[in-house]
Model the fold of this input.
Amino acid sequence: MKTESMFQERLKRHHDELRWLYMELYNNSDMFAELCQQLHDYALKRDPELISLDEEREQNPGWFRGNDMLGMMLYIDNFAGNLAGVKEKLAYLSSCNVNCIHLMPFLESPKGRSDGGYAVADFRKVQPELGTMEELFALSQACHKRKINLCMDFVMNHTSEDHPWAKKAREGDGEYMSRYFFYDDPSIPEQYDRTVPQVFPTTAPGNFTYLEEMGYYVMTTFYPYQWDLNYRNPRVFNEMMYNFLYLANQGMDIIRIDAVPYIWKELGTDCRNRKQVHTIVRMMRMICEIVCPGVLLLGEVVMEPAKVAPYFGTVEKPECHMLYNVTTMATTWHTVASRDVRLLKKQMDIVNGLPKEYLFLNYLRCHDDIGWGLDYGTLSGWGMGEVEHKRFLNQYFTGRYAGSVSRGELYNDDPVTQDARFCGTTASMCGLESALYERDVEKLIAAITLDLMLHAYMLTQSGIPMLYSGDEIGQLNDYTYKENENKRQDSRYIHRGEFPWDLAEKRNKKGTHQALIFHGLSRLEKIRRERSVFRSDAAIYTYDVKDQGLLAILRENEEERFIAIFNFSDQERTAWMEESGDWTNLWTGTPIKMVDVLLPAHDFVWASRSKN
Done:
């Protein structure tokens, strides 16, 4: 009875707005009534422990905003073989100070046509070799006992061509064809192509795939085997929400909605960021708050921070709880290569100027490539033209630029435009791979210094830091993907290698690079966790130290003044500044005078002064 009354109370709170938005989009009262009934059913099916967690989090709605939040992205098979294996490795993850695990795509998808798991054939089945839904629920229970949150991907824009809906559509069933975008008139796809940018112009050109056996074109924004869903059809929205709630009920704490800007298609537009997308995300937020209020929405929106901000919604009508800070990640590596912090500083000023309610998820590397979608309007004013600068960045990070220590490979290299994206692990990009290959101790120390500096910088940013599995021990590029016929065409697998448990054992062996990185990160994470100045409500600004190679960040609250300085140059630099008082370098534990601070190449300072 308690669950029933809680559901009715939450539904009453949101019913009118939810109905208004639904009817505005679909004008179908029967489908809305069905949706409400299903929300009721999923709420009552929710596990008692999850219901208790929902109540606890409703009482503390900012539970995920603490300075103790630290995430890690990992592939189940690469990390521990399967879901049961991940459960057995939770002690290791706890030793990494991680309290949020993002499981990369694990739902059933066809071999060789999975796009790394983003071509889902069944939203209610785990890939057989990874385990079962029962094992996923068992993992979530084990995580919750350790106060670890679990995150997964929900692929909204498309299904695999092997999904039951797609199979029925391919057979000519009109009900299921209406769940996708099918056209027998080639002029309509041609009209779309005039205004819709291509996502993968080299490996998957165009936005449609012709199905010869049917005589129809089907919209495939990403790859030919990923068919775009038609959210103009209320049946699609309803059924996808039932899949969403089914997955939430397996014990997920955070659900990442993949490629969300793409989900509403409109002829004559670029089919990105349409206003109807925000209606759908707002409805998803309310559905969460009605059925599973302890679950957070994490939006994947690949644009600069000022343009992704609308996906937070408003304080009165919120959409996503968190968003990825994709552009800052790419700009960070631009800064490493150019040794010029101006663009990074400009973007951080924009982020820091947004409302405190907006929470970004920050990372150095993730499962994906790095696209150089930088602010070329600004860069060109500083003499960095788009074509030349992209070429420079790709030459730099592949190690083909004089003086570069980075190693990696290009992705979607276009021989005509000479545009490409980049793939590689953090450690290999920092020079660890080349230093070990050359057996150069000096270069090895320099690579570790850069690696730790970048992680310290990420931990200083406003938001939640996310590690990529393997970065905590300096995992290198894995070139064995070229031996696998299902992976060799996709260079992103270079940084999706199997986790080296043999090398991880060296993290406690003094003097190894694994130990230096692992324990260096642990120290940084401990400092962040214990200092109130790292909380999300602290004031945060960039600090001008009059050197284009240095980025300085000021954090401040009533108790503490904290200044971090990061040297993105490969030369010794001076931070021109004058701060009075007694300061402590938190990284070294020693006193420091914050007057014209000298920083060695790629070094950093975390300095603090008490206000009491």
Summary: The CA atoms of residues 343 and 596 lie 23 Å apart. The first strand starts at residue 71 and ends at 74. The mean pLDDT is 95.
